[in-house]
Structures are given as structure tokens and as C-alpha cells.
């Protein structure tokens, strides 16, 4: 078995996932980069890191989820840390009921909730085999507060929080399951809604305890810490500059 620990980060061609991949690599871990569509960006990041591969796969497809996990174990011989970061949203004001149809619910839940489950299920036996496996799910402050880019998105992150608690209660003692819930983070996520980004950034800067938006590195540091916090399971850690307090 490979001696170095191995981290698989879904949705890591960009933003928070890419920062988590860099943080794990800095700590000497072997890293698996994944995305569904941005293959070139994923391959480029993998080439920059010392021991990394890129594996394309859509987490909402159970066969893809299994294939990504299998490719990880085939390449590096083990899996120690799974970070479920792949996610998507639609920017729909919370009071625009008409704009939210069934397809929006299904699209968001397929990736954010069911995709997270597919990955957890496929990875569980390999994480268990290490005796100290760890899963960190990327949730959102909108999973526990009445805010967010759309109602289906916020509800999907509430589901991720509870999935984290339920699996924290059942995957131990060999596997710990935790989540990080970011606030507003500066990533390409907001490229399609620059007005949402600008309004939210100004509000956060003026009204929250730490007076700034988050960086992908802020979130990556919390993910790294939680991934290695040996006596923590079933926890959801807010990484939002205190946004949830106001
Ligand atoms: N930015 C924020 O303010 C913020 C706040 C709270 C929570 N979050 C959460 O943080 C996570 C990452 O967001 P980000 O801001 O870093 O966004 P981002 O830069 O847009 O990155 C999203 C990543 O997910 C991948 N992805 C999307 N659908 C996928 C699928 N079905 N299978 C595999 N990969 C998929 C994307 O790649 P492709 O689309 O190319 O496949 C990309 O690599 C998400 O779960 C999001 O909900 C973000």
C-alpha cells in the first residue's frame, strides 16, 4: 500500500475545491482532482501538483461516482479523505416562486445531495479499510439560515447537513463524517450573477463580524483541519466570517 495519504476532492477544477486540493498536496498527500465538464482546467491543476491525477466524472451519476473512486484506488492504492465539494445552483430570488419548477429542484438535488450520497457510498469501504477515513462535505450557511441563491439550493444544503449528521452517527468508528458551511466566498460561482456577487459582497463587508468575504483558501484551511480532527464527527462547521450571527 502507498504510504502517503490520499485525498479525493470532487468539483476541484475551480474555486473552493481547487484550493482544498492545493492544501492537501501542500501537506504531502496524493490528490485526485475531479469535475464533470471542465476537463482542461482539472488536468492543468493535476499537472501542477506533485502527486495528483485528474479523473472526469459527474457525481450525480452513480456509475461515474464508483468509477472516480475506483480510479483513485487503482492509482494510489488507498483512499483516506473524501471531500464532497461538487455543487451547483440557480440564482433565483427567494420570493420568485414561479421561477422554481420541478426541473430546478431535481437538477440541484441530483448533484448536491444525491451526488454527495453516491460518492459517500462508493468511497465508504475504502475509507473504512484505512481505519481512520474521513469525509468532509461542503455545505453552505444557507443550509441553516433563511438565505441563499435559491430555495432549492438552500434546502439541498440543509439536506447535506443532515446527511452529515446521519452518516457521522453510522460510519464510525473507522470513518468520520463532517461538513464545512461557507458563507460568501470569492470564486467563479458568481460569474453568471455579478449583481448578486457585488450586492452580497458589499453587505457582508459592512455588516458581518469579520468585515470581508471569504477566500477559497479560508475554506480549504477549515476543510483540512476538520478532515484531520480525530475526535470530531457529525459536525457542521460555519466558515462564514460570522455571517450566521447577524
Ligand atoms: N462560492 C461561495 O460563495 C459558496 C458558498 C457556500 C458554499 N459553496 C459551495 O462550495 C462548493 C464549490 O463551489 P465554488 O464556489 O468553488 O464553485 P465553482 O468555482 O463554480 O466550482 C464548482 C466545481 O464543481 C464542479 N461540478 C459541478 N457539477 C459537478 C458534477 N455534477 N460532478 C462533478 N463536479 C461538478 C465544477 O466543475 P464542472 O462544472 O466543470 O464540472 C467545479 O469544479 C459548492 O458545493 C458550493 O455549493 C460555495
TrEMBL record:
Ketoreductase domain location: 5-192
Pfam family, one: adh_short_C2
Organism domain of life: Bacteria
InterPro entries: KR_dom, NAD(P)-bd_dom_sf, SDR_fam
Keywords: Oxidoreductase
GO molecular function: oxidoreductase activity
This enzyme's EC code(s): 1.1.1.-
Family listed: Belongs to the short-chain dehydrogenases/reductases (SDR) family.
Official protein name in the record: SDR family NAD(P)-dependent oxidoreductase
Amino acid at each position: 500500500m502507498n504510504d502517503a495519504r490520499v485525498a479525493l476532492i470532487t468539483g476541484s477544477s475551480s474555486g473552493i475545491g481547487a484550493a482544498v486540493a492545493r492544501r492537501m498536496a501542500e501537506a504531502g498527500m496524493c490528490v485526485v482532482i475531479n469535475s464533470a465538464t471542465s476537463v482542461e482546467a482539472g488536468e492543468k491543476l493535476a499537472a501542477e501538483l506533485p502527486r495528483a491525477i485528474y479523473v472526469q466524472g459527474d457525481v450525480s451519476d452513480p456509475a461515474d461516482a464508483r468509477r472516480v473512486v475506483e480510479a483513485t484506488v487503482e492509482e494510489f492504492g488507498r483512499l483516506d479523505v473524501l471531500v464532497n465539494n461538487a455543487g451547483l445552483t440557480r440564482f433565483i430570488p427567494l420570493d420568485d416562486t414561479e421561477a422554481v419548477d420541478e426541473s430546478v429542484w431535481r437538477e440541484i438535488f441530483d448533484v448536491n445531495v444525491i451526488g454527495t450520497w453516491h460518492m459517500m457510498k462508493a468511497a465508504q469501504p475504502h475509507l473504512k479499510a484505512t481505519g481512520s477515513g474521513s469525509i468532509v462535505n461542503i455545505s453552505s450557511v444557507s443550509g441553516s439560515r433563511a438565505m441563499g441563491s435559491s430555495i432549492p439550493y438552500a434546502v439541498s444544503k440543509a439536506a447535506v447537513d443532515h446527511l452529515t449528521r446521519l452518516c457521522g452517527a453510522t460510519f464510525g468508528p473507522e470513518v468520520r463524517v463532517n461538513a464545512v458551511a461557507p458563507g460568501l466566498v470569492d470564486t467563479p460561482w458568481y460569474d453568471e450573477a455579478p449583481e448578486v456577487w457585488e450586492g452580497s459582497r458589499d453587505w457582508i463587508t459592512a455588516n458581518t463580524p469579520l468585515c470581508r468575504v471569504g477566500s477559497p483558501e479560508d475554506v480549504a484551511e477549515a476543510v483540512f483541519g476538520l478532515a484531520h480532527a480525530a475526535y470530531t464527527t457529525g459536525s457542521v462547521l460555519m466558515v462564514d466570517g460570522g455571517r450566521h450571527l447577524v
